[in-house]
Design brief:
199 residues, mainly alpha, Rhomboid-like fold, two-stranded antiparallel ribbon, globular
Length: 199
């Protein structure tokens, strides 16, 4: 008697790894999370790992659920266009640049957590990927992202988003995350000139 095995597509495995890591971090004691979030004083003291780990810490389960929904949406739209490794690399680049940009350009922000900056980067990365495939809708998506970022800079985040998250949203992180996504797209083009190539 043989048993059938279910093999998940690599892009689904990538999403499960990211969201599973975020869920494990959320379950950690609060004191541990303080060592993982972006903290201006900590980074200034040399704790640079916070640029990465801050992306996996959230204000609460509702905040994590909101970002998980965004991650699933980004992956549903764009993820299947990419090998899992390249998709995860783009996420990490966007997440690190999101936190690093806040550190360098937003001195009034003392701590930061969540995946939203990295998700804005994934959106930019995916849109550029479509442009590389001569899909004109990629330009429309980039324009829509730019309008959202400009709106947030002038008016702040939506009140409903802050009520779900349970705290203030650092919109500067979205700007830097989007820039990180564009940088990730440039890195991807240098390393893999053929553009998106799903596995």
């Amino acid at each position: 008697m043989t048993t059938a095995t279910v093999k998940l597509p690599p892009w689904i495995v990538a999403v499960l790894v990211v969201l599973g890591t975020a869920a494990l971090c959320q379950a950690l004691p609060t004191e541990w999370n303080l060592w993982l979030r972006y903290d201006r004083g900590g980074v200034s003291a040399g704790q640079v790992w916070r640029f990465l780990t801050a992306n996996f810490i959230h204000l609460g389960w509702a905040h994590l659920a909101l970002n998980a929904t965004g991650m699933l949406l980004m992956t549903w739209i764009f993820g299947r266009d990419w090998p899992a490794f390249r998709w995860l690399l783009a996420l990490l680049i966007a997440g690190v640049i999101s936190a690093a940009g806040v550190h360098l350009a937003s001195p009034d922000v003392f701590w930061l957590i969540g995946l939203s900056g990295a998700l804005h980067g994934l959106f930019a990365f995916g849109a550029v990927g479509w442009i590389r495939l001569d899909e004109r809708v990629g330009w429309l998506l980039l324009a829509g992202l730019l309008m959202k970022l400009i709106y947030e800079q002038f008016t702040g985040s939506l009140a409903v988003s802050e009520s779900i998250v349970g705290g203030a949203i650092v919109t500067d992180a979205h700007v830097w995350g989007a820039l990180g996504g564009l940088i990730a797209a440039g890195v991807d083009k240098l390393c893999w000139r053929k553009g998106p190539a799903p596995l």
